[in-house]
Amino acid sequence: MLWFKHKTASEPAAGRKEKTIGDYLLSQLVRYGYGLTIIIIILVLVWLMYFLYCNVYQTLGQAEIVTQLKQKVLEEDLQQDKFNLVVEKLKAKQQAATSTPPLTGNPFKK
Fold this sequence. Notes:
mainly alpha
């Protein structure tokens, strides 16, 4: 003989609502939600720092290098006549390389 009444799974405790799967999932979401939110925020901040480094910091560094090179080029005196002579010789060399003499006769006959 039992001295106490055995509760079955279908009988909720007096004054308590029976827990459902949705309640369980919601409690787990709240339990782990704070940690997940912090991890997501940290990942977004790391990505933002990487994005700013690649697209802002490096671009500013390259712009500074370009301005320094422009100042250096302006300081040097370019010899325009020698530059034009080199360009003309390069063009002549390219034209000579592209024009090949036509083949005369059959190269495969003896």
